[in-house]
Amino acid sequence: MKRHEPTTNQPPIRLKKEEGPIVLRKRIFLQLVFIVGLVFMLLVSASETGRRWPLFGALLFSTGVILASVGAVGRLWCSVYIAGYKMSVLVMQGPYSLSRNPLYFFSLIGATGVALGTKTLLIPVLVIVAFATYYPFVIRREEAELLRRHANTFSVYRQMVPRFFPKRSGLFEPNFYTSMPKVIKRHVINALWFVWPLGLIELVDMLHRLKILPTFLWVY
Question: Could you tell me which of 9, 27, 31, 114 has the fewest CB atoms within 10 Å of its CB?
Fold first, then answer.
């Protein structure tokens, strides 16, 4: 399959808000509700795992930092290729030669890393379950639109590249690629959201330990 350089001849697709099931139409609202719920849980609870087994808690936090960093760097890598193109061009190079949805793959890794930063096991499980419940709808919808837009090319691409988990042997990166710096800049800021929360989580944990924030619930 020939992997081509992206062009901007076609305008980006603007999907109608009323299209798709309610879980997609309310995407931002659902994400906000989930994030607010997690933040509230952090403010009123502390890690029982970290209290009982400090070394294990430290290991969870360190693993979280690593995964959050991988998620942030991975999203930046994806952004170099996809930023500004999304639906208008079928991107098949770089991370998109390993997985059809590498942006979501790295988002899951980063979000799991942030959740592990709480030094609990429950919150990472909640994040993974929420992701596995919601994002398959998003992926199916986006791939249906790509199939409509790119027909035979996407059909071949779909047969060669896995939907979610990367296949390393398929990596292809061109020597030159046309990117959009102004669009990528916004994606860089978004990617850093997998790193900044770890500092806030550690601050909240310290406030609980100093009893400045009351702890109503201990979470494993």
Answer: 9
